[in-house]
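Duplicate of #3305? Posting structure anyway:
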């Protein structure tokens, strides 16, 4: 799966989904039970396309080896992130260019509880 991929292709690859509301992003996402991922879509000309991907599952890792369950210390050691733990409980990657994808890590206590990836850009 990749940003901009059609929903019909995602459905064919990972199976059925159910609507979930993620209040922190003010919108509805689809949860693919079999894959354990949330997908945010945008509509364009009658089709839906992948806009963002998230998970609560520890089976998916970043290239740096960070996954749900990793400690905050591991995250900060392996990836350059800026954190807003007091205000919204997140850390996010700092892309070299605002048009590059970025990752948001939701921290629960001292561990990563959710990982979300966005395409970046304005």
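Output from current build:
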């Amino acid at each position: 799966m990749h940003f901009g991929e059609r929903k019909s292709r995602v459905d064919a690859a990972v199976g059925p989904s159910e609507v979930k509301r993620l209040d922190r992003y003010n919108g509805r996402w689809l949860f693919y039970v079999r894959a354990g991922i949330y997908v945010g879509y945008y509509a364009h000309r009658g089709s839906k396309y992948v806009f963002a991907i998230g998970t609560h599952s520890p089976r998916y890792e970043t290239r740096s080896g960070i996954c749900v369950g990793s400690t905050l210390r591991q995250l900060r050691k392996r990836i350059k992130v800026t954190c807003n733990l007091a205000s919204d409980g997140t850390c996010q990657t700092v892309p070299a260019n605002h048009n590059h994808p970025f990752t948001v890590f939701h921290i629960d206590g001292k561990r990563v509880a959710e990982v979300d990836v966005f395409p970046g850009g304005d």
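Confirmed duplicate; merging threads. The longest strand covers residues 47-55. The beta strands are 18-22, 27-32, 37-44, 47-55, 81-84, 90-93, 102-108, 111-118.
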